[in-house]
Amino acid sequence: MKRVLFWTIIILILGGTVFVLAMLPRKEAGPANNNGQTAEVPSITATDWVKGSPEAGVTLVEYGDFQCPACAAYHPLVDKLLKEKGQNFQFVYRHFPLRQHNNAKPAAYAAEAAGRQGKFFEMYDLIYQGQTNWAEKINPKDIFLDYARSLNLNLEQYNKDFNSAEAKGRVEADLQSAIKLGVNSTPTFYLMDSTPSTDSGQASSPQASKRIQPRNYDEFASLIKQTNVDSINSPQATPNATP
């Protein structure tokens, strides 16, 4: 009888440990400390949100969470890069809403809904700039609706798209691609040394990419510049060169 009781207690303890581990949140505070790690990031498709120069030889991909304070801190750095160096790269934003952030998915749906009216990055800017105004709200939808109104969106269409299966599916697709890559913190940045095709909504082969951890604007700019140089000097970039 004592032996049965002993093993029952052990099983309960192990079961509880597994449950607690399963419920642990994904990390948040800034890019993970694995600068330079390579990965095969899904190529850009017509469904991605892209800003910058499509002819550039470099693509910067961010997996971000709108409610993440570190992502909000990086937002002005990326914005400055696009304004000052946008001819040298293109920027792709993909969603990675952390489970501990209750308002991260609604924020992503708001951006997706705005994107369907051609205003994804305008909404993206407003959401990050106003993060402290909505992050802890029980229901931030009215704030996002005010942002939509300020962008002169069709509000009826915005609400429809906000609640649509398409918006939710788009966010979930980004989330799953991040999980497959092993992303576990936000923001996570990758640099691709060539520009993927955006001719169709179907993903082509994954792009060999480098995970980066820039700490400031100058490091961001330097990494992009170096990737441009590497792309220009690569054999693929000079197909007519003679051996």
UniProtKB/TrEMBL annotation:
<dbReference type="Pfam" id="PF13462">
    <property type="entry name" value="Thioredoxin_4"/>
</dbReference>
<feature type="transmembrane region" description="Helical">
    <location>
        <begin position="6"/>
        <end position="24"/>
    </location>
</feature>
<feature type="region of interest" description="Disordered">
    <location>
        <begin position="192"/>
        <end position="216"/>
    </location>
</feature>
<keyword id="KW-0812">Transmembrane</keyword>
<feature type="compositionally biased region" description="Polar residues">
    <location>
        <begin position="192"/>
        <end position="210"/>
    </location>
</feature>
<feature type="domain" description="Thioredoxin">
    <location>
        <begin position="18"/>
        <end position="229"/>
    </location>
</feature>
<keyword id="KW-0560">Oxidoreductase</keyword>
<keyword id="KW-0732">Signal</keyword>
<dbReference type="InterPro" id="IPR013766">
    <property type="entry name" value="Thioredoxin_domain"/>
</dbReference>
<dbReference type="InterPro" id="IPR012336">
    <property type="entry name" value="Thioredoxin-like_fold"/>
</dbReference>
<keyword id="KW-1133">Transmembrane helix</keyword>
<keyword id="KW-0472">Membrane</keyword>
<keyword id="KW-0676">Redox-active center</keyword>
<keyword id="KW-1015">Disulfide bond</keyword>
<dbReference type="InterPro" id="IPR036249">
    <property type="entry name" value="Thioredoxin-like_sf"/>
</dbReference>
<comment type="similarity">
    <text>Belongs to the thioredoxin family. DsbA subfamily.</text>
</comment>
<protein>
    <recommendedName>
        <fullName>Thioredoxin domain-containing protein</fullName>
    </recommendedName>
</protein>
<dbReference type="GO" id="GO:0016491">
    <property type="term" value="F:oxidoreductase activity"/>
</dbReference>
